[in-house]
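Most newcomers find our protein records easier to grasp once they have seen one. Read left to right, the backbone structure tokens trace the chain's path through space. Nothing more is needed to start thinking about how sequence determines fold. An example says more than a description, so a record of this kind follows:
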Amino acid sequence: MRRTLAAALLLALTLAGCGTPPTTTAAPTPAPVVAAASTSVTPTLYEPSAADVVAYFDGAGLSVRNPRINDCSAFPGCVELVTTDDVSVLRFDTVEHAAAVASKWAGDGHRAGRVVVSFLAARTPETTRPAYAQAADRAVAPAA
């Protein structure tokens, strides 16, 4: 008797799903998108603000006297400019914008990711420029 009841219940549930289709149709739900696992690892750079880089310089013992936020609209793609008495730090919206500005400044600037350190306005001594450049590289490097 139990088997007959179970078979009848299973048959009823199966046939209930085979009724006439509804008059309104809903849009099909798209399948979730699952990204394929990558076999290569590309390091992601930390994208610090210009103020973060200035703070990093300070923490590294580099001089950043009198920091102030300035307008950077004269530089295409610039989103932030912090000027100090020692260096200026600009952050750009893309690496390409940062590279374009840094290439114009040649030895008077250093690019690290989307950040450019300018030695122009502050007239940073050439002897201290490598320390700022190395610190900028470390400030945007992925954590090990």
The first strand starts at residue 68 and ends at 70. The CA atoms of residues 6 and 106 lie 83 Å apart.
